[in-house]
Write a structure and sequence with these properties.
Axonemal protein which is implicated in axonemal and/or peri-axonemal structure assembly and regulates flagellum assembly and beating and therefore sperm motility. Keywords: Cytoplasm, Repeat, TPR repeat. Its main location: cytoplasm. It comes from Phasianus colchicus (Common pheasant). By secondary structure, the chain is mainly α. The chain has a domain of about 140 residues. The chain contains 22 helices and no strands. Helix 5 crosses helix 7 and helix 13 runs antiparallel to helix 14. It starts with about 35 loop residues before the first helix and ends in a 24-residue tail after the last helix.
Length: about 475
């Protein structure tokens, strides 16, 4: 139930790329440099030396050593040389380390991986431009003692590595941001809160749930009462609630694995509280659903049903078909485990009726499938086929081909089970007439009573009426389900 990362980065500006392979801030030398005329004339035995020298001086411009080197070197080499010339030794070291780390990630992933197919970091001039810009600005700000600017530029470097294959490089700068944020005392704790959120993200991705919870809780405490918002307009405090809601559910899951049910219940109650504080009803409904399952596992069925009813009200208000289906499936399991199958069917019928009144076609499909499965398990294949057919009809209104095919499959299952009743009755009879019925159906796959061979057999042998439960006149499925030949 993970959530997408939101970046608190300041606005980044991609620096323009120059035609010459040198940084756009590399000094240009526009003064003309005259080629040495004397040697040139002597080598080629030019008679009109003075005229040629004058022409060369006026029309041919030479290159300085720096410009010649800029054309010979790679883009990465020009970036590194420029950093060193301007005194950014730390930025040079970090850029060199990043390139080495990127190459190590590529080698570790191996051929066929996504990062292996991409250009290396030193062959991406736009990214090198960004790294040069933000690294040197961070170093200059650090020298000037401006921690806020150092943090902002480090965060922008982290955002340069937003692909999943580059997470290690991103995390390296998130950790630098966290260390820098501890030095900032002038922004009311805003950057420190951001840094805790990023550290929580790192630990969550690495599976360190408890450590992630500590950072998210610090993020929540620092944002209480604040009006800070991210670039999407969400307040930092609501984001903190969302992170804590998710991490508490993960914690509860781990606790259930260790049979710590009471601790899991307490943790899920905290998740519900976070969902309410964040004003997100969907999160509240999901947390309530999870809490009901824990109470069910703990044997407190009455409490579990009560909480499930609460989650159903929330999902109904949100028109959340997926949530409603899971909640009613849970209710069905609890009631059946208590021997209250009839009550379960009543609840599902109510679900179907409410879904029809609210014009929730997806929920109508879900309700009909759930009811059809119950009848199918009980061996009442006629009722199962009835509800599966209703599910198929409702699915056709949703323009969802996969759902239509799914409900069609349910209909086929119910029809096959009906056919098995008739088929098995003939197998169990073990008489010549039943055998001829089966052979005739095997040849034509048509209705048993209307089969010409069967009619001929009827005239010759005058067979008795088949038993009512066999439903011999029911149309057989077009697909030869029983053909094992």
């Amino acid at each position: 139930m993970g959530a997408p990362r939101r970046c608190f980065s300041v606005e980044m500006k991609v620096l323009p790329q120059e035609i010459i392979q040198s940084p756009p801030w590399h000094p240009r030398f526009e003064e003309p440099t005259i080629c040495p005329p004397l040697g040139f004339a002597r080598i080629h035995l030019i008679k009109d030396k003075d005229g040629i020298d004058d022409y060369l001086a006026k029309n041919i411009k030479g290159l300085s050593k720096q410009e010649a080197a800029a054309n010979r070197n790679s883009y990465k080499e020009n970036i590194c040389i420029d950093m060193l010339r301007q005194g950014y030794h730390k930025s040079f070291s970090e850029l060199f380390t990043l390139i080495q780390k990127w190459n190590a990630l590529r080698e570790a992933a191996g051929p066929g991986s996504a990062i292996w197919q991409r250009q290396s970091l030193e062959e991406q001039p736009e990214k090198l431009d960004q790294l040069y810009h933000f690294l040197t600005r961070a170093e200059a700000a650090q020298r000037a003692g401006h921690s806020e600017e150092v943090y902002d530029n480090q965060l922008n470097v982290a955002c340069c590595f937003d692909d999943s294959e580059e997470k290690q490089l991103r995390n390296y700068f998130y950790e630098q941001c966290f260390n820098t944020a501890q030095l900032i005392k002038t922004d009311g704790g805003k950057r420190q809160a951001q840094a805790h959120a990023y550290m929580g993200l790192i630990n969550e991705e690495q599976g360190h749930i408890m450590k992630a919870a500590e950072h998210y809780e610090a993020f929540y405490q620092l944002t209480e009462g604040s009006t800070w918002k991210d670039e999407t307009g969400h307040t930092y405090n609501s984001l903190a609630c969302e992170h804590l809601w998710r991490i508490y559910i993960l914690q509860a899951d781990k606790m259930l694995e260790n049979k710590e049910r009471q601790q899991a219940i307490k943790t899920l109650i905290k998740a519900i509280r976070m969902a309410k504080n964040g004003g997100d009803k969907k999160m509240e409904g999901e947390a309530a659903y999870c809490l009901s399952l824990v109470y069910h596992f703990a044997g407190e069925e009455k409490t579990a049903l009560s909480i499930l009813n609460t989650s159903i009200k929330i999902f109904t208000a949100l028109c959340d078909s997926a949530g409603l289906r899971r909640a009613y499936e849970a209710i069905d399991k609890i009631l059946v485990s208590q021997g209250k199958a009839a009550e379960s069917l009543t609840r599902l019928e109510e679900f179907k009726k409410d879904a029809e009144n609210a014009h929730l076609s997806q929920s109508v499909v879900d309700a009909c499938v759930l009811i059809g499965n119950i009848y199918n398990e009980r061996g009442n294949y006629d009722k199962a086929l009835e509800y599966f057919t209703q599910a198929f009809e409702a699915a056709n209104t949703l323009n969802n081909l996969s759902l239509v095919n799914e409900t069609r499959t349910y209909c086929g299952i119910a029809k096959a089970h009906k056919l098995m009743v008739a088929f098995n009755s003939h197998i169990e009879a073990e008489d010549p007439i039943s055998l001829k019925y089966l052979l005739a159906w095997k040849e034509n796959r048509s209705d048993m009573c209307a089969d010409p061979l069967t009619v001929e057999l009827d005239r010759e042998t005058s067979p008795c009426e088949p038993p009512p439960e066999t439903s011999p006149c029911e149309s057989l499925p077009e697909t030869p389900i029983l053909d094992h030949s």
